[in-house]
Amino acid sequence: MMNIEGGVTAPAGYRAAGVAAHIKGPASEKKDCALLVSDADAVVAGTFTTNILKAAPIQWTEGVCMRGRARAVFMNSGNANACTGAKGLEDAQATAERIAGGLDVPVTEVAVLSTGVIGVPLPMDRILDGAAGCLEALSASGSHDAALAIMTTDTVPKEMALDGGPVRIGAIAKGSGMIAPNMATMFCIITTDAAIEAGVLRNLLRECVRDSFNCICVDNDMSTSDAGLCFANGQAGLPVLTPGTADFEAFAEALRAVCVTMAKALVRDGEGASKLVEIRVEGAVSDEDAKTIARSIAQSQLCKTAFFGEDPNIGRLACAAGYAGVGFDVNDLGIWLDGVQVVRDGMPAAYEEEQAAAVMRQAEFAVRVAVGQGGGEAVFWTTDLGHDYVTINADYRT
Amino acid sequence: MMNIEGGVTAPAGYRAAGVAAHIKGPASEKKDCALLVSDADAVVAGTFTTNILKAAPIQWTEGVCMRGRARAVFMNSGNANACTGAKGLEDAQATAERIAGGLDVPVTEVAVLSTGVIGVPLPMDRILDGAAGCLEALSASGSHDAALAIMTTDTVPKEMALDGGPVRIGAIAKGSGMIAPNMATMFCIITTDAAIEAGVLRNLLRECVRDSFNCICVDNDMSTSDAGLCFANGQAGLPVLTPGTADFEAFAEALRAVCVTMAKALVRDGEGASKLVEIRVEGAVSDEDAKTIARSIAQSQLCKTAFFGEDPNIGRLACAAGYAGVGFDVNDLGIWLDGVQVVRDGMPAAYEEEQAAAVMRQAEFAVRVAVGQGGGEAVFWTTDLGHDYVTINADYRT
Predict the structure, then answer these.
(1) Domains contained in chain B, CATH given
(2) What number of helices (H) and strands (E) belong to chain B?
């Protein structure tokens, strides 16, 4: 398994494009429309926001993924087409129809995703211009343009590809705010030239998302528009992957690695974030309990401002573990900042303040929390909370 | 029912004091030890943090409240006596013993509460000095000194009293960070000269706390040291209040008013807060569902930064309602900023942006959310999230 160039167009049989269509405003020259196409029939699996205010495109694309076959996904940034009523659903469908017509594929096999401002109808003339521009610009090296076009407050495009030996996996993603630890709070589009059944891919994607995109936190908000899609078009020319085989396990491992890498990339580029902090909880009665404790620390505003201040305020870490709602014996509590143990048996350990502060001055470090003797463990990734987050979000729209 | 001066010493038979004992550091001249005493036997009810890392004084004081009788509560700021192991419990008890000895009352009737830094043993020599100083300084006009002595990051002392006709109710409180919407996340000491049974008072206090201190949010953290205590000493000389009577209902209404007023005072003085925002949800299937939606908005970092930015970003409000985990028909969703309807039938209503912005420029305003035709409703109070919160919390300890 090695990293390669090419993003979502690294696997065989995919083309992509990204163009500027002024969705972000008449004066914007930024790319804001993206298209990914599989040249051959492909299966697709998706995971979506659990917000009941699902944006219109999510409702459309859930239908596509339920049927399990797709040839393309069109995406725009700058407008989420959320809280837009019946008009929003019509617009999503009209966008899919434009792409379907251009590619000569069934409209039911075209996914659409939108991200950006909520409550404003899509500017359909510009969206259709963007769709036409993407259809013209499609190329086997178009991944990077597509990754650029889906950015919102992201500061860097997120793109990667793995060569897993026989098959390849590629991905692009966007998302740096509204990152809550519950279902794919971003866009992530994954492609592979492996052959796999839609139902098998769906289960595998769900597992991978559970341990990656569902374990990250920038703020505690969950968007109306989040989606993870995985296309598999079989163009590597290999047999269908079957659970239980070595080939399947290798593919699963690669897909999991892609999801974790992209999830961490989202956190690293979190709005206003200057640090990526790994929260590792072990010794809980169950993995679920461990995850609840990890989430509690990852979401704590007080822990996150302490990370920003590079202040080894161990009381806040212990406190957030304590209010997670999971029972444990406080006398068993241990906490480490990287290799420095700061809490032992529920009380401050013997350590030098400067050692702990040095760990926190790093751009990336780990908080390890042990809560007893059980086998349950979990990992979460979070950011610090600093002034830049406030600045970015206090006036996002103007 | 009218507001009067005197705080916790306004009801008959109470004395209080607040002194400086250098708990906040050798150079600090701030008051940091407080004592409240009932001169006659009194019943007491308490509500406490649900954090499993309960500070030692909380464990001691829960025992006092379980027995239901107390003559005094001693409080210190500057050190929470939390995560301090067996030594912490010994120190809490030794503090109670010093007060009990000074007052000549049973140690089992002396509550103790500590707030401040976590994980550092109490400086017992200074605590005992503070206890002695308080015993000497006790006075029937000592409420204000006590309110000052329990402040941590509070910028103003919180104190009030109501004359409810036959009986009086007084209160002091502290708390401006670590205000989470779950159990009394602060200190609030309430006194009354009404006569009431301990069990009846306990149930009533629990109800009042549910609708006041459990409905406020500054950040999403819950402290190890939070407590609400209510003393009732019967010194007004009236019959014991019995549920179902008009006198009881009048008392309950006054107690609820005290709790709501003090809860809002905590939010108004929330760390770094420049706004007090009331979140009112109605039309839910149950009050509990309404509360879940209100809490979701009150805790949303994106809504809170929009409040700070005075940006009527209605998408964030709708979005936070949508991910609360409560089912409702999106097409029924209505949102108002004070009198300005900004969302109707799940879509942006017809309104002038400037009208909505003008509402948000106020120091206090209300967000009203209607989610359908049910009778469930709830109110939450929250703050904005601005730079000052980050500045205060990025380096609290130094």
Answers:
(1) 2-268 (3.60.70.12), 276-394 (3.10.20.340)
(2) 11, 17
